[in-house]
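Sample 1 of the test manifest.
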Amino acid sequence: MNKLVIASEFSPITGGRTPKEGDFSGEIFRDEILAPKYKECLNNGERLEIVFDNCYGIGTSFLEEAFGGLVRKYQYTDVLKHIELIANDDETILVNVPKYIKAAENTLEDKKNKLKRQTL
Amino acid sequence: MSKKKIWFVLSSIFLIDIVLFIIGLKNSKDFFGITLNGILSLNLTVLVSVFLVQVLVSQRRRYDFLVKLLDNLIKELSDKDLLNSNNHVRASILQKSIANKLLYLSEACPAKLSKDIDYIKNEFDNLRTYYGDHNKTKSDDPYYERVKTNIGDKIVKLQLELHGFITK
């Protein structure tokens, strides 16, 4: 299993949603760290273990942009089957991240269905 | 009622019991003549009473603990650095701590309070998201004030419910 430790591989102090809100945003994390690593794991048929511990506190907008955005921008589906979340310091992450991923996947699914109906 | 008064009442009852016991022993030949049914029903009554008292005391203790936790949450919510982007590290730590406590609270609270706790969790999530999306916003932003007040009010409601002042 491949491992991604946010505190050491990105930053222990994370920012908001976009770079406009400050350094170490969810968008930067998603595009520069999470998405490449996730793609590598998918190609190798591995699961990605993401460790959120030892950060000072990760905001909900950071998480939504990173994980919801992973689905929205890269059109990945069934993301939860390919990742494992480790969050002992902030246990709400274990509730919130799956919620953001599922919401983004549902929106993506709706969009696809709408497109299908329009082409028919 | 003060402790002295309680001790006085309990001692008086105990003394009256002893006096009645002695009088009963002297005047009645069948004082110790009790049927098996009588013994069993007496024991059952005592056991049920003790059990019920224990359950109520234990529930009261749990509720008192939850009320303390809610007090703590109110204190943390009113911390000036909670939404202070100039002290982002402390704000993040505080937000994380409150979110964790709310999660634990939702697991520990009685089911009848789950709706209000879900409301608080949602409002706090919205607050965190707003903070992350508007990092340059000052901590006295009216939105922050509104949501913090909503959460504070709901916490007071929960405390009143736990103390039995509000019953549904």
